[in-house]
Specification:
Blueprint lengths: L8 E3 L6 E3 L1 E4 L10 H13 L4 E3 L4 H4 L1 H11 L8 E6 L1 E2 L12 E2 L3 H15 L4 E6 L8 H13 L3 E7 L3 H8 L7 E4 L6 H4 L2 H8 L4 E3 L16 H17 L3 H10 L6 E3 L5 H10 L6 H12 L5
Parallel strand pairs: 3-4, 3-12, 4-5, 5-8, 8-9, 9-10, 10-11, 11-12
Antiparallel strand pairs: 1-2, 6-7
Helix pairs in contact: 1-3, 3-4, 4-5, 9-10, 9-12, 10-11
Length: 307
């Protein structure tokens, strides 16, 4: 079948930004052993595939991933205006890069949110974030205080839009009652279907906001050697292989197409430094599974037929 050579774009919320459907996830950037110039080439190759949105976080790569991206941006300043930049804050890791952190914990105080966003801008060598997410729900989060931090960052021109990651519906609704949110970045894959059934994607549809999906390939567990897979992964892999053969694409492309087909209009984050894997993700945007194909994969994951 003919494959998409370019990721489509969509507006992720009624008053939100327009992002590419495939998002370049850079949490592993430091492990790819790329020179700064190789990082520039990687970004340009992603752009050529229609991927215009980059996902980062302050803590990625032991607080180094954003700086590695920034080195590439400094080498190729024209890229600043061609990408939308997403980052996250709210987790404090124990790291020699942050000697003041005595233990791993959450911090959604206004002071930390503002300082983290400003540090992300410096590290990535950009002037504005398109989207800032609270990385994990904080039991001590004060919705009014967070809203105040968001308002400060927006009014100062440092961040355009705001959202959350890994929030339950009640946590999302609490913060959204104080400040407009444009996405919830959550885990979803054939090995982790919870968001399909706990109301997360239902709320996204209700509010007409597109979720952002991380670990869409189950951390690579679907594509290990057969002998290393558990029974569930083997069931899923077998159905992926069958449908991939029918549609003449890779099993990875089918696994992502299964997510992209959900009516909440998810955006899928990549996690690979291999261009071939990025291309497979873009290919998924051109595929529509039949309902029987989609449910064959659901059933393989659930280990049962629908009721």
């Amino acid at each position: 079948m003919s494959m998409s050579t370019s990721s489509p774009r969509l507006q992720i919320a009624p008053n939100g930004p327009e992002f590419s459907r495939i998002v370049l996830g850079l949490w592993r950037l430091g492990s790819w052993q790329m020179t700064a110039q190789q990082r520039v080439s990687f970004l340009e190759q992603a752009l050529a595939l229609g991927i215009t949105t980059i996902d980062q976080a302050d803590i990625y790569g032991d607080y180094q991933s954003e700086s590695l991206l920034g080195e590439a941006i400094a080498l190729a300043p024209h890229l600043r205006d061609q990408f939308q930049f997403v980052s996250k804050c709210g987790i404090k890791l124990v790291s020699d890069k942050r000697p003041a952190h005595g233990m791993q914990h959450y911090d959604t105080s206004a002071a930390h949110i503002i300082a983290s966003a400003e540090q992300s801008l410096r590290a990535m060598q950009i002037e504005q974030l398109d989207l800032l997410l609270i990385h994990r729900p904080d039991p001590l989060m004060d919705a009014d205080e967070i809203a105040g931090a968001f308002r400060h960052l927006q009014e100062s021109g440092k961040v355009r839009y705001f959202g959350v990651s890994n929030f339950t519906n009640s946590q999302f609704e609490l913060l959204a009652s104080r400040f407009p949110l444009v996405t919830n970045q959550v885990e979803l894959s054939l090995l982790h279907m919870q968001a399909l059934h706990d109301g997360t994607l239902d709320l996204c549809q209700q509010l007409r906001i597109a979720p952002m999906i991380w670990s869409a390939l189950g951390g690579g567990n679907l594509f290990r050697l057969l002998a290393e897979q558990d029974e569930r992964s083997q069931r899923i892999s077998a159905v992926l292989a069958r449908i991939a053969a029918e549609l003449e694409v890779s099993p990875g492309t089918i696994a992502l197409a299964w997510i992209l087909q959900h009516p909440s209009r998810p955006l899928v984050l990549t996690g690979s430094g291999r261009l071939a894997a990025i291309q497979e993700a873009v290919n998924a945007t051109a595929i529509t599974l039949s309902r029987e194909q989609w449910f064959a994969l659901w059933c393989a994951s659930a280990g049962k037929n629908v009721d």
